[in-house]
Amino acid sequence: MTLLCVGFIAMHFFTGSPAGPLMATTVWGSSASWALTALPLFIWMGEILFRTRVSEDMFRGLAPWVEPLPDRLMHTNVVGCGIFAAISGSSAATAATIGRISIPELKARGYDERMAIGSLAGAGTLGLLIPPSIIMIVYGVAADVSIARLFVAGVLPGMLLILLFSGYIAIWALRNPGLTPAREKITTFAEKIFAARLLIPTTLLIGAVIGSIYSGVATPTEAAVLA
To answer: How far from chain centre, in Å, is Cα 201?
Structure first.
C-alpha cells in the first residue's frame, strides 16, 4: 500500500501521465499474470501435507539425526521447517504443520516451551526465502523478474539461516544445560539409516518441485501442478 501511494503521488505531481488509469492498468496486468496460478496450488499442497502423515514421518525420520546435537529434538523445528518450506512455499503452512507435530512432542519430553515456540516462530519464516517461495512468485510477477532465478538466489541464504537458527539453539542449550532434558537413548547408525526411510516421500516431493524448475523442465506453475 505504501509503494502504491508513493507511486501514485509521484506520477500525479511529477509526470504528465494519468496516474489513475495507468496504475489501474498496471495492477490489473500484474494480478492477471498466469504465473500467479502457482500460488493457490502451492498453498493447496501445503494444506494436503498438513492433513496427511508426511509431516509426522518427517519428524520421526529427523529425530534420530539431531539427538547428538545440543538441545537435541529442538533442532527438528528448524530442520523440519526448512524441509517443509521447500515443499509448500508458505510460512504460515510451514509453521502450522511443523508446530502441530513438534510442539506437543517437545512439551511432553520436557523441553523448554518458550524456546520451542520461539524456534518454531523463527524457523517458520523460512517459507519466505526457501524456494518455492510464494512471496518470490509475487515479487517476480510484480517486478518482471525471472521466478526461477529468484528461486536459485534463495537457496544459499535459506541454508545459511537454517545453520544460524540451529547454531543459536546449540549455544542456548550449552548456556542453559538445566533446561535440556537428558538424552533418552543412544541411536546406532543403522537405526538412523532405518529411520531415514521415512524422509523418502518428502525428498522425492522436493526433488520433483525444485528439480523440475532448476533443470528447466517445468515452470514454477507447471511444477506446482506436477506436485
So the answer is: 17
Instruction: Give 148: exposed, middle or buried? Use CB within 10 Å, 0-12, 13-18, 19+.
Output: buried
Type of residue found at 58: M
Taking only the tens place, the pLDDT of each residue in 123-177 is 888 888 888 777 887 777 777 777 778 888 888 888 999 999 999 999 998 888 8
C-alpha grid cell for residue 90?
508458505
**Closest Cα to residue 43, out of 227, 213, 214, 211?**
227
Cα torsion 153, 154, 157, 162: sign: negative
What is the span of the domain harbouring residue 179?
34-226
> What is the residue-wise DSSP string for 121-179?
HHHGGGGGTSSS-HHHHHHHHHHT--HHHHHHHHHHHHHHHHHHHHHHHHHHHHH-GGG
Q: Is residue 166 part of a domain?
A: yes
**pTM for this predicted structure:** 0.71
Number of domain units in the chain = 1
Q: How many residues does the chain have?
A: 227
Is position 122 within any domain?
yes
